[in-house]
Amino acid sequence: MNLIEEFNTYRSEMNEKIMASDNKVIKRFFNLDTNTYASGAIDVKSKEMIGLACSMVLRCDDCIKYHLGKCYEAGLDKKEIFEVFSIATVIGGSIVIPHLRRAVEYWELLEKENKTNV
């Protein structure tokens, strides 16, 4: 299993367990998150770029992977992703660089996976 599959499988399995707890607050928070990234006055592509930049500044590798996947699904290309990376690095400073490295690795895996699935 590759890094992308591992991340997505783990995330799905754990989200199922979390939702099975039937906790109203957690369910509402998850719903709020889902609705936040839905198309509205701002398109999905832009929202995912914002989510990615914020996740990098907050240094959340799981969030970075999630938003990279969503950015890929939204059709961002490598140049656009690196502009988002540059914004996050300028805002967050050098502490973002280790997360930038892992983000680049994950993006390359997304690109590679797509080429092998075509």
Query: Mean of the pLDDT scores?
Result: 96
Give the end-to-end Cα distance, rounded to a whole number of Å: 19 Å
Rg, Cα atoms, Å: 15 Å
Question: Unreliable runs, pLDDT <50, ≥5 residues?
Answer: none
CATH architecture: Up-down Bundle
Strand content: under 5%
Task: Assign the CATH superfamily.
Answer: AhpD-like
At CATH level 3, the topology is: AhpD-like
Number of strands: 0
CATH top level is Mainly Alpha
By secondary-structure content and strand pairing, the structural class works out as mainly alpha
Give the helix tally. Answer: 6
Please tell me what the overall shape is.
globular
Order of helices and strands: HHHHHH
Tell me roughly what share of residues is in helical segments: over 70%
Task: Domain count, please report it.
Answer: 1
Reported for the largest beta sheet, the result is: none
